[in-house]
Amino acid sequence: MKSGARALGVAESFSGSDRSVLCGAVLRRDRTADGFAFGACTVGGTDATDAIADLWTSLDRADVRVLLLSGIAPAWFNIVDLSSLHERIDRPVVSVSFEASPGLEPALREQFSGDALDRRLRTYRAQPARRRVDVNDEDVFVRSVGVDDVAAAETVRAFTPEGGRPDPLRVARLAARAARRFVNEDAGLADEDT
Questions:
Q1: Which domains, from first to last, does the chain contain?
Q2: Among 162, 159, 187, 136, which Cα is nearest to 1's?
Q3: Phi, psi at residue 169, to the nearest 5°?
Q4: Which of 15, 106, 154, 188 could bridge across to 192 with cysteines, CB 3.0–4.6 Å?
Q5: Where is 66: in which H helix or E strand?
Q6: In this predicted model, what pLDDT tens digit does every residue of 125-173 receive, in sequence order?
Q7: CB atoms closer than 10 angstroms to residue 152
Q8: Dihedral angle at the C-alpha atoms of 65, 158, 52, 56, nearest 10 degrees?
């Protein structure tokens, strides 16, 4: 992958609100930040896929080759439909999570019931399986659509020059947190780190 190759990393931050701040950070493989977009999705809602697609559209960047997501359940189980997102943006979508787990189904069953649970389970079960990927002697867990397993792992490694968090996700997370703090301070809300 060339040093000028670009990825859009999307991460979120929420605290004390019914909305979670999303940040999309465009980074080149050489670690140069090359664009930002901000949006929001509902905490505990079902609009994350739409909100992320809107971030992509607002950037209007044909040069971005891949979308990297921090997990598939931002904003308290607002499950992202990776296949739908891939179809809408016409780019590979790679979700990266950072902890081993038995999956989201037990937590979903604990937090939701009825139609809210059924909808989330349908979306969650439709996602590709997570695969463990070794990155700089750390394990991350990857799901991907629109790219095979080998290429997804290579993409994650290419955008992770050190540590285990790809730079587009690291920068997007920092920017989302800063934007959330700004929004909360402007609204006079208490702020907690999430």
A1: 6-187 (3.30.2170.10)
A2: 159
A3: -75, -35
A4: 15
A5: strand 64-70
A6: 999 999 999 999 999 999 999 999 999 999 999 999 999 999 999 999 9
A7: 25
A8: -30
